[in-house]
Amino acid sequence: MEHDAFIGKVPQRARLASRGAAERATRATLETLALRLESGLADNIAAQLPPEIGRHLLTLEPYVKLSVDEFFGEVCLREGTDFPDAIYHARAVVETLDEAVAGGVDKMRGQLPPDFAPLFSGSQGEMHA
């Protein structure tokens, strides 16, 4: 999936007003995921994305064991939005990621603890809000 297609889907799914807001939500979500995923998986997913998007998964920061609430809190801070919107936006980004990367979201689910299920409620057609 090309950069414009990926970013074009995020505002539709997240009900964002602009592409700039979609870029911020995507960056915040992927940078936070990069902290929580093992580097091999993050690198693999990044390699399947356009470079402008995939780079947000590449980090030199150490792995951090975040709870799902801490994860959404970090997305909230990085995006500069409130907590409920950060959850909704992160789900929209992950749903778009699921469409863009073969098997990447399933591998992320397998690597993250069960309490991360709310992050994936938007992938594979499960988003209802």
Can you offer a commentary on this structure?
The structure is a single chain. The protein is an all-alpha fold. The chain has one domain: Uncharacterized conserved protein DUF2267 (Globin-like). Helix content is 63%, strand content 0%. The protein has seven helices and no strands. Helix 2 (19-36) crosses helix 6. Residues 123-129 have low confidence and may be disordered.
Summarize the structure.
Helices cover about 65% and strands about 0% of the residues. It contains 7 helices and no strands. The longest helix is centred in the first third of the chain and has 18 residues, at about 20-35.
List keywords for this structure.
about 130 residues; mainly alpha; Globin-like; about 0% strand
Helix and strand topology:
Blueprint: H1 3-14, H2 19-36, H3 39-47, H4 51-54, H5 68-79, H6 83-100, H7 104-111
Helix pairs in contact: 1-2, 1-6, 2-5, 2-6, 5-6
Helix content: 55-70%
Shape: globular
Number of strands: 0
CATH superfamily: Uncharacterized conserved protein DUF2267
